[in-house]
Design goal:
With 158 residues, the chain is mostly helical. Helices cover 43% and strands 10% of the residues. It is built from six helices and three strands. A three-stranded parallel sheet has the order 1-2-3, with helices on both faces. The longest helix is centred in the middle third of the chain and has 17 residues, at 89-105. The chain is globular.
Length: 158
Amino acid sequence: MQILRATSVEEAVQKVIPYLEDTSSAAHKSIYFEGRGGLAASAVLRAIAENPAPSLRKKFDRIIHVDCSRWKNPRQLQRAIADRLELPQHVMDLFDRQDEEDDFSGVEESSREGVTDIGKEIYRAIKDLSCLLIFHNGSDDTVDTSKLGFPLYDCMHL
């Protein structure tokens, strides 16, 4: 584990960017970033997403920022990714149909998983792209984005 220390959002961004720029075979595919001492991780991640360095724009075909700091379930994360990818309406309608089915079956909102068919559509949309997924996880659980259509081995997560 590498510990980076910073006293400002700008300094933290500058320390994280080299990890994102790394193209070596030893480069990390997933980076966990946690704010401490008043330096909020969300602010750093948002700064990277909203104003990516030119090197990141050049390296990644897509930079997808998903803030699920108050998320309720994995399906909500999957919906946010699908929204950012601007998937067709007929694909987005699958969320509503699955939600209706789960409502009818009594599945609690917190227990709703991703939709397999949408995961396949997400994968199809990104499979030939180099992507950076900047994801704010609001839960205490580790999220397996590959189950949602965003496989770790093809893209970098932050």
